[in-house]
Design goal:
Elements (H helix, E strand, L loop, with lengths): L1 E5 L2 E4 L9 E4 L2 E6 L10 E11 L13 E12 L2 E8 L2
Antiparallel strand pairs: 1-4, 2-3, 4-5, 5-6, 6-7
C-alpha cells in the first residue's frame, strides 16, 4: 500500500488592495493506493484506491467545508533517476 497526503498552503486574493485576502492551510486530501509489491519488468508501478477529503481549512474560503471521498489512480515509471507518471482522483 502507498499513502499520499496533501496539505496545501493557500493564498486567496480578492482585490488589489490586499486587505481582505485569506491565507492559510486548505483541506487535507489523503490517498491510499493498493499496488503490486513488485514493479513490472519495464519499471511501471500502478495503484488504485480511495481518496479522502477532510475539511481542515483554516479559513472557510480556502476549503470545501465538507467531507468527501472518491476513487484515485496512479501510474508511474522510473527510469535513469527520473520518475514520470499520472495521478487522477475524483472527490
Amino acid at each position: 500500500m502507498i499513502s499520499r497526503t496533501v496539505l496545501p498552503v493557500n493564498y486567496q486574493i480578492y482585490n488589489e488592495g490586499g486587505r481582505d485576502d485569506d491565507w492559510g492551510v486548505g483541506d487535507i486530501v489523503q490517498s491510499l493506493f493498493f499496488s503490486p509489491s513488485k514493479t513490472s519488468d519495464n519499471g511501471v508501478t500502478w495503484g488504485v484506491g480511495p481518496a479522502l477529503l477532510f475539511p481542515t481549512a483554516s479559513e472557510k474560503a480556502l476549503g470545501a467545508d465538507q467531507y468527501g471521498a472518491g476513487p484515485t489512480f496512479v501510474v508511474l515509471k522510473q527510469s535513469h533517476g527520473w520518475t514520470f507518471g499520472a495521478l487522477a482522483n475524483h472527490i
